[in-house]
Amino acid sequence: MEPLQLNVALLRRRVPQLTKAARSVGLRPATVSNLTTGKISIARTEVRTLVALADLADCSLDDLIIRGERYEMIETGIKTIDLFAPLAKGGTAGLVARPGMGQLVVLAEIFHRLKKEDYQVVVLKPDGDFPEVNDITEDVEFVYETVEEADLKVQEIGTERDVIFVADRSHVQNGNILSLYEKWSSLQSVTTFLVDFKGEAVDEEFPFGPLETVWQFDSELSARHLYPAIHPLYSTSTVLEGTNLDQHHFKTQQKAKRHLRRYRELRSIVRVSGLDSLPEQEQRLYKRGEKLEAYLTQPLYVAEAFTGQQGESVPLKEMLEDVQKIIDGAVDDRSVEVLTSIGALT
């Protein structure tokens, strides 16, 4: 079957206020969000929804639906990201978090890792006083105060090199990002990160417009100091659609999601009544879910000075094998503590 993709870039250009526009024609913003980020595939989407989106974008269905295109995954070596919400090369990723949940540490880690892969990082500083920006730009060569300066640099280096571009959500709201996308369409590859320095995006249903990747940060994981605190169920990516993703990766990811979803449901029961209140089979599932959650934490290179732990990178193939082992019970004899903040299983 020929793979089908929603033309998210076209939607982004023509319908920047997609939330309001979708609601105005009777579409649920959550449905549109799930469709644009890959949670809902085009094959499972009602025709009337696609027709309404095409009308909003003033285009035909043939323009809205891309046939045969695949999103390339940027492998980061960060286990929870590569498993649940792979970074789409040339796409736009939105980081949704309240202040203090670790989103800037993750962003700095991405810079650190991708610079080793010869990506060039360009940061457009947000308007206003955000001193924490300095923490993530210490090792970034290209940091600019104005849209014009950032645009010139991306165009200069983007003809021959892959670029990572970072901007604040305010530049989405004022239309700057939309105009930049139109200028950069002919460049080699510009992967954009949108960050909400004010921490307001977490309260909105569709904060960044159409995205290829969403990293939703989890307040519970953050409160329990389980980092990176990427939500395993709410974070997603267009790369996760079955036509794009390696089927082994896709199946492992789905198993892990189901396991962690049930584990999270059982946590409330265990907190109140204790583990022994669960049937034996549910106890086993709970313990493995706890270990999987622990395994998906990871020491980061940029945090070495603060944690005292050496950063770890785990290849995708090895990570998938490890996740399968945990779900199958191959590490039932290991404690949660042993599996916390490690790299690969040994």
Automatic annotation (TrEMBL):
Q: Which domain of life is it from?
A: Bacteria
The answer to whether UniProt assigns keyword Transferase to this entry is: no
For this protein, the record's PANTHER family field holds:
ATP SYNTHASE, ATP SYNTHASE SUBUNIT BETA, MITOCHONDRIAL
Pfam families in alphabetical order:
ATP-synt_VA_C
Q: Which keywords appear in this protein's UniProt record, sorted alphabetically? A: ATP synthesis, ATP-binding, CF(1), Ion transport, Membrane, Nucleotide-binding, Translocase, Transport
Which residues belong to any copy of the ATP synthase A/B type C-terminal domain?
A: 244-328
A single Gene Ontology MF term assigned here is:
ATP binding
What this protein is called in its record is: ATP synthase A/B type C-terminal domain-containing protein
Spell out the family assignment given in the record's similarity comment. Belongs to the ATPase alpha/beta chains family.
Entries under SUPFAM superfamilies matching the protein: C-terminal domain of alpha and beta subunits of F1 ATP synthase, P-loop containing nucleoside triphosphate hydrolases
Q: Where in the cell is it found?
A: Membrane
A GO CC term attached to the entry: proton-transporting ATP synthase complex
